[in-house]
């Protein structure tokens, strides 16, 4: 039924101006629209709606991620822009916080300004 329909991604935010700055200036996404209710970005071919909420309890799992061709280069650019990557106790991550899956994919996680966990993945 929805196989050919475009997906829309949603991320909650308690402060849209702060989120707009992060998603546009730091991550480089194109801001398409901002209303009192959401910032709408273009992320590749996907619409991303960063939606205003009054309260937010960040979840302990990834809510949004990007597949990138060169994770290390993207990570270095993001660190230079002030992004801090998560380190998880008991997970074998390297000095940059990158975890390699048993299949050889590389994954790194980082928070947005509201504490939502985002990720980068370089598929093997």
UniProtKB/TrEMBL annotation:
InterPro entries, A to Z: Glyas_Bleomycin-R_OHBP_Dase, Glyas_Fos-R_dOase_dom, VOC_core
Name under which the protein is recorded: VOC family protein
N-terminal signal peptide: none
A Pfam family annotated for this UniProt entry: Glyoxalase
Domain VOC: 4-123
PROSITE patterns, per the entry: VOC
């Amino acid at each position: 039924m929805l196989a050919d329909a475009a997906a829309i991604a949603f991320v909650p935010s308690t402060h849209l101006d702060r989120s707009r700055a992060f998603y546009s200036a730091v991550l480089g996404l194109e801001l398409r629209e901002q209303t009192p209710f959401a910032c709408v970005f273009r992320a590749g071919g996907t619409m991303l709606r960063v939606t205003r909420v009054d309260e937010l309890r960040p979840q302990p799992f990834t809510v949004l991620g990007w597949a990138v061709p060169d994770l290390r280069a993207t990570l270095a650019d993001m660190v230079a822009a002030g992004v801090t990557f998560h380190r998880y106790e008991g997970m074998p991550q390297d000095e940059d916080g990158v975890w390699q899956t048993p299949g050889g994919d590389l994954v790194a996680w980082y928070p947005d300004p509201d504490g939502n966990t985002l990720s980068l993945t370089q598929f093997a």
